[in-house]
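Lab notes, practical 5.
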Amino acid sequence: MVVIYTGDIKRKQVSMEYDIGAVKMSLECAFLSELDYKGIFQRLEQKIKRNERLDDGELMEVIVMPLSYQKAEEKQQKIRETVALAAQIQDRGQQLFALSGILAFTDKVIDRETANKIRRAIEMTQVAQIFEEEKQQALLQVTRIFEEEKQQALLQVTQIFEEEKQQALRKATEDFEEEKQQALRKATEDFEEEKQQALEKTAKQIVVRMIKKDYSAEEIVSLVPSYSQNDVEALRRELNAAEEKHNTENPQDRA
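Output from the prediction step:
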């Protein structure tokens, strides 16, 4: 059996073997207090800054690092540092795994504010991942359609006399490639525009919910980078004005 001890437990405080009469049990213990947090953090930070993919062991290091400290204040500080580091992981799947793992492993010691920040970061990462998957699916579909049309055009051209076939093939290939590039560019531009509009709409919805929950402008800007404090305050005034107008026109609702 493998037992992992947090940073407030030392090796000398526990026994590796237990004798319970007819049964003797040996434990394989891992002590987080023996981890070189600073060295591990620097190594992972450098790798993440180079946009390199982490292996399974490194992902687990990201998750358990905050628990290698003894004092509660130190744990909270290291949780926040590790969450900020995990948020920089470029691979969406690994980022979600790391953030979710930190939230699960530190459940007994994490403060509510940090836990909520992790949950919001996970939600935003999931939104971005969905848009990326939809983009890839759309591009694959466009490519498949054009490849099918290309094959049909080539089959038709082969039925013409050799000389005409070569001329038609060259022209058809040139025209097709040009149309394909134009269509791909247009499809990509349209998709990016729709994606941006959807992101802006989603961001606005998130900001509106946060305003209604009385988040400060600083908190909102830190979680939704596409909004400035001026943007947040302008939207807050807009919502207040709409609410006042509604209350004026519908006094019975206010009552």
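Observations recorded by the TA: The chain has a mean pLDDT of 79. Residues 2-110 form one domain.
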